Amino acid sequence: MTEKTFHINLTCEDRPGIVAAVTTELAGLGANIAESNQFWDRQTNRFFMRIAVTAPQGVERDGLLRALEPAIARFDMKTAIADTARRPKIIIMVSKFDHALLHLLYQIRVGWLDAEVVAVVSNHGDSRSTAEMEGIPYHCWKVTKDNKQEQEAKLLDLFKETGADLVILARYMQVLSNDLSNRLYGKVINIHHSFLPSFKGAKPYHQAHERGVKLIGATAHYVTPDLDEGPIIEQETERVTHAMTAEDFVATGRDIESRVLARAVKLHLENRVMMNGHKTVVFG
Amino acid sequence: MTEKTFHINLTCEDRPGIVAAVTTELAGLGANIAESNQFWDRQTNRFFMRIAVTAPQGVERDGLLRALEPAIARFDMKTAIADTARRPKIIIMVSKFDHALLHLLYQIRVGWLDAEVVAVVSNHGDSRSTAEMEGIPYHCWKVTKDNKQEQEAKLLDLFKETGADLVILARYMQVLSNDLSNRLYGKVINIHHSFLPSFKGAKPYHQAHERGVKLIGATAHYVTPDLDEGPIIEQETERVTHAMTAEDFVATGRDIESRVLARAVKLHLENRVMMNGHKTVVFG
Amino acid sequence: MTEKTFHINLTCEDRPGIVAAVTTELAGLGANIAESNQFWDRQTNRFFMRIAVTAPQGVERDGLLRALEPAIARFDMKTAIADTARRPKIIIMVSKFDHALLHLLYQIRVGWLDAEVVAVVSNHGDSRSTAEMEGIPYHCWKVTKDNKQEQEAKLLDLFKETGADLVILARYMQVLSNDLSNRLYGKVINIHHSFLPSFKGAKPYHQAHERGVKLIGATAHYVTPDLDEGPIIEQETERVTHAMTAEDFVATGRDIESRVLARAVKLHLENRVMMNGHKTVVFG
Amino acid sequence: MTEKTFHINLTCEDRPGIVAAVTTELAGLGANIAESNQFWDRQTNRFFMRIAVTAPQGVERDGLLRALEPAIARFDMKTAIADTARRPKIIIMVSKFDHALLHLLYQIRVGWLDAEVVAVVSNHGDSRSTAEMEGIPYHCWKVTKDNKQEQEAKLLDLFKETGADLVILARYMQVLSNDLSNRLYGKVINIHHSFLPSFKGAKPYHQAHERGVKLIGATAHYVTPDLDEGPIIEQETERVTHAMTAEDFVATGRDIESRVLARAVKLHLENRVMMNGHKTVVFG
Fold it and tell me: Tell me: the pLDDT tens digits for C41-68?
């Protein structure tokens, strides 16, 4: 058969009738709701919804949008519709530590993540062979104080030329400028190697070791101009002991970071994450 | 204000239009969807839905049911509507170990669980003072091979007389008869002190210790005639070591059991658990 | 039989021969090592050891100490020897939220924690009946800016008079003065209701909710003059979602706090925690 | 400097004086105890100990053994001494699913696991390029009912010729014969893709899905003639939901299996695992 699946995300001020209006239009097209999630933020009276629909042959993204237009207007909704037949395109950025990159590539290879890596960008040469073996274009762009603006311009060009949907900072150790963070708002996911908001900034495992914590963690978040303050998508912690060195924390952390980042990317690519101010709604 | 909140649970064969039909009727009543969850079981093509609605003054359970009747008939739905203003009534059964009982009573006291305990039933006298201090009727019904049928008849009477909604076996060490299990199908939750299906039957912590496992767990499930085979609602595990005795396992297990049971009871009382054959759908 | 068990804790600069010297003396007394843990902190070259020994009839704490004296002198050890036949005495302090208090009392009742509660002290009257039912002296000492010094003096007197070994702040919402923190250094355990160092200070669950974290936690630590900076004994986290309110965080947190505090207290009472500067060594 | 580190593992019937006897000999050689763990199994009165010592220049494995010989004889100890300067050699066996293999190779590459992979053996051709890229000899030995004995003989020859210390079944889907299991007793680690003893045998994730569990897990254990009954080294579980398919369980399981197997292998290679009948003592 030639059914297609679409993800519809919408948000608006909450009031009665939203779900009825949307689902009635979908039923009118013969579309079936495969999955539906919603959240009403009582603090802000904001309503969030994600619907996965299977639509009969001939119903395309444009047709869905047209059918929903009256409801969108009536409730003043922000809407996004994704055609799951179109494979999302991602750019992965990495510095020297490549565990998170390798984990992403593996999860794509076995089909758990559904995405096409259109480029690997690094400020180091280390991962060139990894990228090339997978047939992924590799760009080694060293970053200095002087050329940062220029290199970020190249990244933005690459993003546009490749039609990329998402940039993943898989242990990329350069801070993006405020300007770039704003331009790619909601389209850059970073993995921070601590349980935020603990241990912001550099060398978080060493900070954690110095503090004597009994758990360490990792946090995947959207990048915003406020460093390490972006909306959190996913977190996880694991137990550590006094007998472990800071390097043992780093090694334990590698696994946590890899998993947390991969899960956050999957949630994003499946359109399960919606921005709610500086927080996220995650329809897991 | 005098808004009321209702939980609507429904299940039927999946086909397009279900959500639209139901939510359109709800919108027609001016009811607002506060929360909605659904699940389509592709293996069986079965559809499950739970909606929490806030209805304007004057709309009652009967009115909701009437409004939904055409949709119920059209899609051949099984439906349940709960008025959250009516506090659920529960009977807690316990033998000697009272940690799970105490945890339930505490969670009710602080309001995390919303329920009225209409009776504590035990085959031992140990928890009498606990029950009495909280002003809960306490029934000590010793069970022997000879009087088991009679005692179960008393339990069934108590269930009817008190208008109870749920029986909780909070470490009640007697096995319910097949007959009683069938009569109270879906209305009895047990906590089994192992990670089912491992270590069914008696002394699971000692079995686990003997096997040398590195994690122990607990399982809350509905009671069915097949002992320890009922639909699982909630499970959790915790790490153990070779240095721990079977008694240490028991002590660690107390916390796990208390939490897992309380969470399962909360999910049930909030109508978040739906039976799907011998499995459950849990809208957490 | 009349064997007795002792816990010997010692710390000194690391060099060869420490274990041999100590265990040779113990063997000379006919004492058997039931459990032994050690840690060499390479950063500071500090050595830490805990030994649980069963000693034959007639060997007492003093005899052990005398036997170990040459080794203590030779390696310049700090040593503590606890006779497990002597039940530790504890003072529990609480404000309004009583879940952590109740959990401690329950764990003592079932024998998981081995301690005698010599007093419950509160700045509120709420837990009086709980304490009295267990036959524990209850002191309601309101604290104001004006009488704080006086009330702390009463606490210190109580500590001395009762021969208490440990003060537990089981959600006691008053900050101890620097002076008292110093006088009771290493003898006061607090439960902070966040995953430290995140969300220090007041209303941590509300801070966490505002930040949009995906995990919340609790931290048991020794009290020092630096608020929320004391050596961490135990931590744990649990998953939360965007759909939970700050109050849901509080409810989830109650269980975490109760468990984390009880585990930290057990570790301390079993002499498994040793101070290592502003960190702890925990022989779990 | 030229200090060397050795791991000394010993087990014997428990009685006073063991630790003193052993550590006195070590002190006599000027060896320093970097780490020490012990366990007294009260059920069987068996004593287990692992000591990591740094020995001064000139002290070798033979010298340590000679020094300990009187103690070994006196207490009838079973002893093993490993020179950590000698890198352990491992053979990894794999069928089609290569996630656990890749994770092991990665952990070796970054130094978290210290081992030399002397061969990858498979009954399929899939991982040939992976092995060859790392310069590891690859053997594709198809197994049928008729040639099983012959292929196992080749494996045993390979084990001897390469001087291998450990065989790792990293999702190798053939069952080893009783004869081979016995010959390599304690030297073969398997990852079973369930939380044993639940879901032994084939397709455990599908069994788990059918049962409707809320957690899935993985178990690393030594291989014995009793299939899926070998001594457990390490286990872990992760949460699943009704909304996940059996294939989602498989995908979630990949991460768990990879981590659990890698941790078990690390524990084994660091001589932290000791057999205690059909259980293990794990000095983590």
Answer: 999 999 999 999 999 999 999 999 999 9
